[in-house]
Amino acid sequence: MRGDKLDSRKSLIAAIKRPFSAFDGFVSRLSDWLIDWTPFILVTTYYIVSTAIYVFCSYQQIKVFYFFYMCTNFYIAMTCVVEAFLAMTPIREARKEAFRIEGNGRRFPSPDQELPMLDLLIVAYLPNEKDIVKDQVHYALDELAYPKNKIRVNLLYNTPAPIEPLETELHAMAEQYSELRVIKVPKSKSKADNLNHFLTLETDADIISIFDCDHFPHPHNPRWAAERFVADPTVDIIQGRCVVYNTDETFYAKMIAIEFDKIYATSHPGRSRMFGFGLFCGSNGYWRAGVLRQIRMDEFMLTEDIDSGLRAYAQNKKAVHDLNVISYEMAPNNFAAFWNQRLRWAQGWTQASYRHMPLVWNQPPSGKRGLDQRFGILSLLLIREMSYYLVTQHTCLILSFIITGFPSSPAMLIRLIFFEYPLAEWFLFFTVTCLIITLAVTEMVRSEFTSWRAMLAFAAIYPFYLILSATMGLYAHARQIVKYSSWNPTARS
User: Fold this and answer.
1) Which domain holds residue 403?
2) Among 283, 307, 275, 229, which residue's Cα sits nearest to residue 120?
3) What are the residues whose beta carbons fall under 8 Å from the beta carbon of 259, sequence distance 6 or more?
4) Which residue from 465, 453, 397 is spatially nearest to 52, judged by alpha carbons?
5) Please, which residues have CB within 8 angstroms of residue 392's CB and are 6 or more apart in sequence?
């Protein structure tokens, strides 16, 4: 009898809780929906309201806005040109050094026994990279031209659910290769968790390198980095050049490959010369082990790599960009993957910019930060974030022109967009010239996986790409406002 009463009581309690559980589920789904769609609503409203404001502005007000936005566009273009020109020196030096090593029978200056001990980390999220992880590990073990007694390959992976027989096969590889360690990171939810777990382990490495799972480092990649550390004891971080190799798959990959050539071969080294500091960008990066163990990764940042690089810079650590430290990686092959990746990057940059803005006025623990570095930080963190609004506001202004004076022919549309005012043609001329010069320097160093045809296509769509990037920046700001924090890994294939 007592058992029947207990069963009845449990049934009654369950019946009472059921409506509340259903309500809690509804509230949770509604909350997720609001977090997902509020940024879209905010950005859409931003575009509509901004365009409407320009529609109702007076002629003189529009003229002021127009010239202001043309000036800011010219500033952005000029910055790219200066970076490209300044990059020519490190480009020339990297080529000279590469030709010297090639002409010397690929013999590097340092004897093998004097090279630093290296821990090479491959960071993987298995559900996303289960189809490529074994190939990447085999490549690192078999193809990298670095003394076997001086390198350890470490696979750091996390997975929400066991994946068999893959996991068993990976651990079997560790038994086959003495220089391989396979580490499943418990309770990990991100790349930062994986890295931080490794940094708690005891190793005798002098240098730690970090690679995403889709990377194929050039066989001499670790040797170039090691030689740079040996040659310059003041260097704490080396960021190598990332090259997209899957350009034969989709148009997206072709365009991203050109973009990466521009960023890693011209913008990064050029900006480093202009402002006097480099930056760790996440993959194909080398750290002195002690520095990385001190800095670690912040698992709450969406771009933990940029955050760690800026925290290292705040402590006066020296980061350099080396164009001979080359690694090949995959680009997203569809718009959805591209969108998720760039939104995560954009929101991560927003978080890092907000956190590290005090670098503009603070001094490092030792040494002194000059005006060039302060302006460089201001440009990197504040002006870059503001550029999203400058580009999109200019776009809204052009949309208002089309609404108020809808063109009847393509020629009228071009005149409306580019030649509305007498000085506009000069701004257009100088801006286009800056773009051509920037791409001309990029053409000098573009990878073997791209072509001049792809370069022309990139130049043609570049204005539209800037608008898309600025829109994603606004979207990232909106996500930050609603505290969106999902970490969406990039799809691999």
Assistant:
1) 42-112+223-493
2) 283
3) 458, 465
4) 397
5) 46, 47, 50, 467, 470, 471, 474
Question: For residue 37, what are its two tokens?
Answer: 């769609």
Residue 37 lies in a domain: no
What is the C-alpha to C-alpha distance for residues 232 and 304, in angstroms, rounded to an integer?
26
pTM for the complete prediction?
0.86
For helices 133-143 and 166-176, the axis angle rounded to 10 degrees is: 10
How remote is the C-alpha of 67 from its chain's centroid?
32
The answer as to whether 190 is a domain residue is: no
What pLDDT, in 10s, does the model give residues 330-355? Answer: 999 889 889 989 999 999 999 999 99
Write the CB contacts of 71 (distance below 8 Å, at least 6 apart in sequence): 427
The count of structural domains within the chain is: 1
Q: Output the six-digit token pair for 484.
A: 């969106």
How many residues belong to the chain? 493
Residue 239 CA to residue 232 CA, distance in Å, equals 15
Residue 419 has φ and ψ, to the nearest 5°, of: -130, 40
Decide if 331 is inside a domain. yes
pLDDT tens digits for range 8-56: 655 655 555 556 555 555 555 655 656 677 888 999 999 999 999 999 9
Q: Is residue 10 part of a domain?
A: no
- pLDDT in 10s for each residue of the chain, 493 residues: 545 555 565 565 555 555 655 555 555 565 565 667 788 899 999 999 999 999 998 888 888 888 888 888 888 888 888 898 899 999 999 999 999 998 888 889 999 999 999 999 999 998 889 889 999 999 999 999 999 999 999 999 999 898 999 999 999 999 999 999 999 999 888 899 999 999 999 899 999 999 999 999 999 999 999 999 999 999 999 999 999 999 998 999 999 999 999 999 999 999 999 999 999 988 999 999 999 999 999 988 988 999 999 999 999 999 999 999 999 999 998 898 899 899 999 999 999 999 999 999 988 887 788 899 999 999 999 999 999 999 999 899 888 888 887 766 676 666 666 666 666 667 777 777 887 888 888 888 889 999 888 988 998 888 889 899 999 999 999 998 888 766 566 655 5
Q: Which of 190, 208, 186 is nearest to 199 (CA)?
A: 208
Strand partners, 155: 122, 182
